[in-house]
């Protein structure tokens, strides 16, 4: 209160410039970008802000998928200790906005014309009650295969176009003594893979109704049961040490040729980039078999908190930098994602990035762009967590049959709603 009054007095007496000069030239950011590829991408942002004279206060919370980071953020916010911004996924932004702790970026958004350049699917999660509360950094998609090219050549494999062809390919790898499928046995990774399995098994309409609309008929259908059957098949191709493995270590298994393929969001490409690997030569990116034409997306957003006045200029600078066209290209080339604006040229992107951009455009226009349930864009966090829990219990044998998995999924989602 006293601070506000003082600022009010300064402005009122024509001393606005003096107040401005006291702005804190620092951005404090909470995030879960701790792998090699992620850290490299984050550096692009740090350097951009450093050039403008802003210091960087890093609040990294390791743990892919961000569950640990979100627990840490909750504690900070509860203590009234808001960072300038936090990495967040879809529905989490809306939850914080509803709690009244987000700032208002609308002035920056209007000046920069975000409403024209940011796709509607992202605005749904970055605008709350008519105000911009988050700056989307990228668009990731989860329905990808990442394949070691040398292993693929060795086993004489070709791009699998259907789920059955995928199983045949995994069999070939197994016969050649290579680990067929690199998976990290953590709930968010298993559920991220299951998003693709469901889309492949049931098709686009089914995915949307089940995982975006939470339609109970679909959730308890035979198609969902078949999806769990298919997941069970995939899990038979995983090595025995998969429990608890971090996602980037699973990617490293593919990079090194210890495993043929990983099913993962395109943040995996950031790891190939960091290891100086080239698509087409060292690795291959295909859509998860049977999902061509659809994109299951998530987007990293920088949720912007209602920080004190003297931190607002730094926050606005962060927001402006995040959505600048040049940054959107430079950052996403390194991160493995694609731009959060529709007007960024694909010139600097590699073949997988160009494909990602073209796929996103086509899916957006064709009505086959769907939010990832595992990645916070299908339903609010409580539902997503219930989903991750059921899928993981199934993968680790605590839920023994597909029938039981379907029942538990329906109940858990109902309870969480
Ligand atoms: C984020 C990515 C991140 C990945 C693994 C996802 O939820 O959207 O940016 O690279 O988790 O940490």
From TrEMBL:
Top-level taxon of the source organism: Bacteria
Keyword Signal included in the entry's annotation: yes
Main location: periplasm
Pfam families: SBP_bac_1
Entry keyword set: Periplasm, Signal, Sugar transport, Transport
Xref: InterPro entries: Bact_solute-bd_prot1 (IPR050490), SBP (IPR006059)
GO cellular component, one term: periplasmic space
Localization, UniProt: Periplasm
First and last residue of the signal peptide: 1-21
Function: Part of a binding-protein-dependent transport system for a sugar.
Membership in a protein family: Belongs to the bacterial solute-binding protein 1 family.
Name recorded for this polypeptide: Probable sugar-binding periplasmic protein
Organism: Mesorhizobium muleiense
